[in-house]
Structures
1.
Amino acid sequence: MLKTFRKFSLAYPVALLAVAILALLSLPQSESLAQQKTKSKDMNEVKIMTLDPGHFHAGLVQKEMYPGVSPRVHVYAPLGFDLYEHLKRIANFNNRKDSPTRWEMEIHAGGDPLARMLAERPGNVVTMAGRNQGKIDRIKASVEGGLNVLVDKPWIINAADFPKLEATFKAAESKKLIAYDIMTERSEITTILQKELIHAPEVFGQMQKGSESDPAVYIESIHHILKVVAGAPNIRPAWFFDVKQQGEGVADVGTHLVDLVQWMLFPEQVIDYKKDVNVISGKRWPTVMSLPEFSRVTNEKAFPDYLSANVKDGKLDYYCNGAMTYALRGVHAKLDVIWNYEAPAAQSGGGDTHVAIFKGTKSSLEIRQGKEENWKPELYVVPNSSSSKAEILAALKKKVAALQSKFAGVGVEERGNRFLVTIPDKFRDGHEAHFAEVMRRFLGYLRDPKTLPAWENPNMLAKYYTTTKGLEMGYRSATASK
């Protein structure tokens, strides 16, 4: 233990050292690790182990307490900035005024946290959110070691790792384990309602096929490097800006967008990436950051050496932006992932924004989140012709009335040549709350693995094939243009 603490940098708050010492010393002496291993096999109580948390999403899965989940969470990580930030988030959840959590954190700090976790195994579920380089190796080792995993996207950030992803799912299926991706966007109310209307032919018609130049699906996701999370500025680790560790836009955020296209267009259907996906083109470009901007979000005084290849004239070229066009069973989709440094001053809240357009033969379904929407996502139904407006309005009102049993209070308003689907605030629970919804789904699958949909694993393979192929196409495009 002393050897571990000698590696601790004084650049970090001494409070972290105290927290780590107290947590380690609080490990129960009356119960051996062997006894804990035996108990962890009983899925009547889920026991969480968090591995090397380096992203705030690792904390958000603990924003709530869950029935049947032990309040004691074991964290395996190197002692440093990432661990300190993670512990602060959990402490904030425990100490908040409204509905505080009751997590008890056991800290196992030191070198090779994966090996130590697999050797000690005080839990039966591993959660991960952090460095994406090598993440699939940690996932694969955990699954092959007999552990269920709940992991933040992306699982892989380059095509070379795709065979490891395939092997991981084969291992999970053979061992009857749950390996689950944290896809929060499926819980967003505007997306849920958009999906409902895509499959209402009297409103939407049939999905168009589109083309490369005129895609039938367009999704744009704009994020901001400087942002506020859980009420506090989000300080990002410097490695976040190394695309070799974090991944580029299409391979990272793009996982959400590809997942939505699959989930919305072909619900509960198995997608075969070998037959159903055709990636057509890709593009990548940087967001340029000055050193003061970089320091503001990292607290670092200089660019680390591992970023030097992308520092030009004192500024960092952060290749976080990407675009791709592909066809899924013949339906052409275009995706744009954009990272701006910060939100415009006029934008209330400074959060991420989302645009999603699906074109049907009768109308288009559009989620927009701009100034007109007061930066909240809103869903519109836009008839393809003015002559069909009355017919589509009547069909839309009938569909919305049928949805009242699930979404009481949802309504329709005319807005010029389009219709706004009005959504009560009670359904607008926000991005951070969606992590708890994903966790609840995951816990249900743990307790009854037979309830895991047959399409989840193959569709994850299709998703990651699409994103990594799109990134590969982006590199090819950049090389060809030189």
2.
Amino acid sequence: MVTRTTLFQRSTTPKNMKLSNLRQVSGLSLFSIVLCLANLDSAGQEIIVRPSRGGGMDTNAPMIHVDVFYDYKANKMHANVDTSHGVPHMLPLPVGYSFAASSNYSVLSGKAYSLQYAWNPGGVFAPPANAAVWIECINASPGLENYDGPGNKNESPPRPYTPILGTAGSPKLWRWYGRMAHNAYAILNPTNSILTATYRVFFGDEITGARDAFLEYADAIVTLTWTVDPVPEPLVFRFGAVSDAEGSSLSMLNADAFTAKSGYAVNMAEVSMGSQTSRFGCEIPMIALPATESNGGPEPGHAALGACLELELLSLDGPAGGRLSFCEPGQQEPRFEIAAGGVNGRQRIQLSDNDARPGADPYGRNEGRRFTADRAGLYRLGFRVVDVSANGANGEPLHSPSEVYHVYLQAGLTANSIVRDGTAAITKFVGTPNANFYLERTAGFEGAGAWQVVAGPLKGMSRLQKLVDLNADGATYFYRLRMSVP
């Protein structure tokens, strides 16, 4: 695997690093950045792998037994979970890796998964005549999937990875085959960080699983738990109104997910600009919600018929000298360009497609609009939504303007800040998805100035995150961020 590393040292520190401010923090010095990108193989193709026990590429995750046995004296089934290894964390494959499409385990493609839990014989016991041990899924988090595989590593032939325990319409009863059974648990696009499933383990008819003839044998109830990184809401800014009544205010309906208050940051990747200085760009889809069936509506939160929505840019904070430009779809030249600290509200972006016609649907779906920054750093863009129609009383707009919103735009990999808190050095930065981040330090660049990892890995989440050196003990240190893509 090819690795490319770029080191920004003292003479090439990006201006947004604010070196003079960092020098004012006692015991801290230059903050440099290492960007470490792992590419695909030389042919640019995805690498085919087998599933790992811990999900993703995690081959070191511990096995976690669910020990099943029957206590004849107590007339009770038991299913005890080994909690000494913590809670499994589901992981998807990283970018650049995939499962063979013809394999049984291709059902895990694109999903976060884990194979750590194993139904395991916890003692010697035999089912009653004409009975078998069955497992029933009583309740599970929405979207959680169960598959019969991979089983024990010595299983031959391999388990088939068929859906079980209610997955894909399968029966919620599964006959356990009495040997260590590593089943696969997976989820596509999780929305919560914690997943659970509750199972009943019991003796039932060896063919049907019916319990009627074996009710004197008490069952066991066990709950399994996983953690998982939720998939963020797709990046689309959705605009409408508090209500469609005249005079009500306009609104960014999913502001809680994307504004600066949430910590979310839109990542602006480096783009090729020929011989020009490196630039960073992103596309932000924007929708003014439809009010009529002809445009797929009406959607809750739409503005009034006849309203014409526009985005009014009010402020831009960012690195000194940084500029942000805006291009409409298909255009090569920016429609406008604004400098950090220089926005005055004259720049607007059309959202509705109705040209402010009376009674027209306020709908507009705008994709391919591109923002470009000319300097690396964290930008903070302020805007509000306004109605530019004259279809209200006395020729006024139908809606009053929205509140002012702010969103973060992160251009490239930079540190937003580094501060001292006692013996800790706290670094804030924006982490991109599908990458791990590390904080490293050295006592000096010359001589034996080896870099030491002091925090991480931390998985990027498209939001402001922290890495902390807990032992910044008063010495002068140089710090850097390192990003790696598995």
